[in-house]
Q: What sequence folds into this?
């Protein structure tokens, strides 16, 4: 990096728009969406999709609900041409879906593109040429007048050569992009767009699409919004124009720039699933759409099975959705932090059906996008007591008493710390079972039976302690009291029962009882034991044995 002061780069000039309106607006509806995955996205792949993969991807886009899909650049290669023809000839395009093709302002490319679209029911011809000062200077060595002529001549050819398609029943719409719009002088971008519109002569029923791309993202999102609002307010035929966005992500703010530009008046968004595209990618339509959804606006696209969409995307593009990418990433509905886990658990427990979503740290219900509740709490050495309790309850049905959460949390965190990695729910369950349910020494229960006598309960128990068998009897006001009294006649440390909680595990004839008992030893140690059995009485006795074995270990 250049040391300060930085002279290698210069700040992007602001737009003079003193009466800007977009900062005070609120989004109220979804835009028109156009997927450019099969063109802009595909060209950015190290290994472009095969025809079969593109067909599968097209079907995915249709299933999601896209009504406008850019399918390629048919004049650029035979593969692109053949793919477009196959979609049409094999009747793969639903009647309400328009295919879009991209083309430069060259006559032979336009005629070839028209040929590729022959027989389509709904089509969008997307014409573009570069307009920025740098493009004019370094690439084309052209004046402003030269650039306007290129755009208007290309539009004239599209209008002329598309007439046979229109006559044959194709609904042909026209889209024009001043490429590198955001780095083009606004008054010149307007001049080119107005000249193109003069040639096309749109109507209110058949509007022109003026696509204003941030081909490279140079400025902050507010500047992009100013540019879009400036264009929207200066277009002479705004009521006959759909203003379209095509935002790239070079500064990492493509989503924000798109959202602010929608506030600024744009009608349409071009982008890709998960932001695939050249360099840092296009705007991620999944994120923009679900951002709208979390504000109570249905995007008109169906992402209710985001896992399936991600699977097709990753297989066809050979790219991976980042683990932290909003909504679709593997870890976005996951909390490792103990305080976050506790807040999620508490707020989720109070979430009522048919009320606005209000779960802490989780801005969208994972079920709305087909994600699993099971992955929300994940455990590592940084996790808290509430997270462990959540996993044991939601994965395995153990509803631990509140006082037990801290104890099991410490045990699991020690295991995770020693392992140095995340613990899976199965691993957490295994630790819980070994620590509480499967201890067989030094004390082991061999037999237990109770009989009632008047208002008292008598117990008879057979235990082994350090290999020695003991047969005990005692009376108490219940099975637990009787068993504790019986244990008091042995050499075991003295203790008292502090709390007792039980619940059923499972339903019907397969149901078992789980008991959690907290004891306090003569040395002042308080700790829990747990027991499980088809007999609720035996479950509580096993919990006492579990607690004593844990105390003897300490």
A:
């Amino acid at each position: 990096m250049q040391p300060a002061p930085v002279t290698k780069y210069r700040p992007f000039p602001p737009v003079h728009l003193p009466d800007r309106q977009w900062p005070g607006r609120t989004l109220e509806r979804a835009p028109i969406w156009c997927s450019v995955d099969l063109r802009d996205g595909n060209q950015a792949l190290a290994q472009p999709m095969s025809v079969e993969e593109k067909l599968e991807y097209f079907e995915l886009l249709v299933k999601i609900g896209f009504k406008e899909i850019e399918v390629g650049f048919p004049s650029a290669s035979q593969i692109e041409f053949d793919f477009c023809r196959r979609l049409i000839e094999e009747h793969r395009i639903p009647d309400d879906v328009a295919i879009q093709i991209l083309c430069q302002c060259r006559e032979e490319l336009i005629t070839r593109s028209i040929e590729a679209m022959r027989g389509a029911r709904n089509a969008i011809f997307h014409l573009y040429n570069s307009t920025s000062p740098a493009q004019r200077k370094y690439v084309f060595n052209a004046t402003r007048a030269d650039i306007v002529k290129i755009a208007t001549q290309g539009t004239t050819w599209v209008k002329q050569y598309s007439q046979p398609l229109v006559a044959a029943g194709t609904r042909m719409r026209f889209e024009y992009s001043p490429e590198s719009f955001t780095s083009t002088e606004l008054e010149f971008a307007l001049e080119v767009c107005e000249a193109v519109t003069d040639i096309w002569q749109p109507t209110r029923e058949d509007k022109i699409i003026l696509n204003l791309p941030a081909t490279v993202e140079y400025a902050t999102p507010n500047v992009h919004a100013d540019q879009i609002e400036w264009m929207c307010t200066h277009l002479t035929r705004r009521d006959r124009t759909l203003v379209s966005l095509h935002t790239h992500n070079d500064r990492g703010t493509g989503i924000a720039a798109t959202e602010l530009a929608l506030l600024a008046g744009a009608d349409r968004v071009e982008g890709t699933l998960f932001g695939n595209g050249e360099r840092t990618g296009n705007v991620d339509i999944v994120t923009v759409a679900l951002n709208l959804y979390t504000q109570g606006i249905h995007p008109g696209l169906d992402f209710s099975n985001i896992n399936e969409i991600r699977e097709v995307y990753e297989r066809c593009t050979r790219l991976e959705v980042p683990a932290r990418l909003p909504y679709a990433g593997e870890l976005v509905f996951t909390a490792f932090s103990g305080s976050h886990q506790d807040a999620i658990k508490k707020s989720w427990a109070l979430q009522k059906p048919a009320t606005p979503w209000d779960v802490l740290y989780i801005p969208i219900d994972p079920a709305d996008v087909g994600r699993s509740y099971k992955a929300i709490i994940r455990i590592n050495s940084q996790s808290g007591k509430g997270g462990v309790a959540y996993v044991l309850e939601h994965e395995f049905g153990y509803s631990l008493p509140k006082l037990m959460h801290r104890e099991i949390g410490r045990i699991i965190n020690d295991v995770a710390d020693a392992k140095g990695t995340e613990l899976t729910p199965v691993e957490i369950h295994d630790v819980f079972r070994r620590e509480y349910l499967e201890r067989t020494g030094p004390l082991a229960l061999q037999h237990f039976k109770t009989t009632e006598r008047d208002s008292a309960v008598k117990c008879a128990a057979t235990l082994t302690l350090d290999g020695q068998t003991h047969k005990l009897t005692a009376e108490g006001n219940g099975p637990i009291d009787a068993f504790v009294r019986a244990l008091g006649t042995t050499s075991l440390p003295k203790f008292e029962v502090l709390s007792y909680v039980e619940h059923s595990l499972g339903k019907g004839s397969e149901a078992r009882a789980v008991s959690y008992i907290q004891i306090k030893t003569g040395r002042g140690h308080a700790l829990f034991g747990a027991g499980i059995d088809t007999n609720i009485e035996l479950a509580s006795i096993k919990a006492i044995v579990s607690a004593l074995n844990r105390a003897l270990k300490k």
Notes: The mean pLDDT is 93. The radius of gyration is 34 Å. The chain is about 40% helix and 20% strand. Residues 338-436 form one domain.
